[in-house]
Amino acid sequence: MAAVSRHEAEIFGVPVYPDPQDRAAALLQLLLQVPALERSNAMFATAVAYGYLVASGLKIATSPERVRDLARLVKDGTADVRTIADVLRTWTV
């Protein structure tokens, strides 16, 4: 529930996360903060973000290595939503 609420957040009717990449990044970050699995949560969260972008109608081109690199970046906890969204934008064709 928190994951849905965060990526749909609005302030005075203005979306906090305006682009699909921003929303996918917020979702990815939250899934790491609230782990769904016993292990491999970074890969799971990154896969969910990928699926979110595809479900948003975006054409995505990436590789397993780029997915792994993003998972490692977010797993260390230093990447903010903007940084994650910027990486996700590089996946968008």
Main attributes?
93 residues, 62% helix, 4% strand, globular
- Structural shape: globular
> Uncertain regions: pLDDT < 50 for 5+ in a row?
none
Give the C-alpha Rg.
12 Å
Count up the helices. Answer: 5
Strand content: under 5%
Distance between the termini: 30 Å
Tell how many strands the DSSP assignment holds.
Answer: 2
* Mean pLDDT rating: 87
Q: Which strand order spans the largest sheet, edge to edge or round the barrel?
A: 1-2
What class, by secondary structure content? mainly alpha
Measured as a percent range, the helix fraction is: 55-70%
Describe the structure.
It is built from 5 helices and 2 strands. With 93 residues, it is mainly alpha-helical. Strands 1-2 form a two-stranded antiparallel ribbon. α2 (20-33) packs antiparallel against α3 (41-55), α2 (20-33) packs across α5 (81-91) and α3 crosses α4 (64-75). The longest helix has 15 residues, at 41-55. The model has no long low-confidence stretch (mean pLDDT 87).
Question: What's the short story on this structure?
Answer:
With 93 residues, this protein is mostly helical. The chain contains five helices and two strands. Strands 1-2 form a two-stranded antiparallel sheet.
Layout of secondary structure:
Layout: H1 2-7, E1 10-11, E2 14-15, H2 20-33, H3 41-55, H4 64-75, H5 81-91
Antiparallel strand pairs: 1-2
